Inverse folding.
């Protein structure tokens, strides 16, 4: 391959890496903004933040945030929705933890619980 091909390939790889970096920053910003809006004074913002967080995979950080939300939310509809999301995430984390603890103890990848 020629020197020009390597240079072009290097530029393409650099552009892809930059795009991935920008994408990661935007995603992190979105998550932090929605977590902040979960404690907004406006009920609609809290509802939108709950809807966004409900689509996310369970993490310990989100579970702690949702516990705080459920404890502080004055509106029963939002509090109940937060509780549902919290229970789903806690169940998901419990299953993941249980599987990780027992992984490798079954034959051919079987789960032994």
């Amino acid at each position: 391959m020629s020197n020009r091909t390597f240079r072009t390939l290097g530029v393409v790889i650099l552009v892809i890496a930059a795009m991935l970096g920008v994408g990661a920053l935007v995603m992190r910003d979105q998550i932090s903004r929605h977590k902040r809006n979960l404690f907004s004074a406006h009920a609609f913002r809290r509802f939108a933040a709950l809807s966004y967080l409900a689509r996310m995979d369970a993490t310990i950080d989100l579970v702690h945030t949702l516990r705080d939300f459920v404890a502080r939310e004055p509106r029963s509809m939002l509090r109940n929705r937060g509780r549902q999301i919290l229970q789903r995430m806690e169940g998901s984390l419990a299953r993941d933890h249980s599987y990780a603890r027992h992984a490798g103890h079954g034959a051919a990848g079987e789960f032994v619980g």
User: Anything to note?
Assistant: Residues 3-100 form a domain with the Transcription Elongation Factor S-II; Chain A fold (CATH 1.20.930). The radius of gyration is 21 Å.
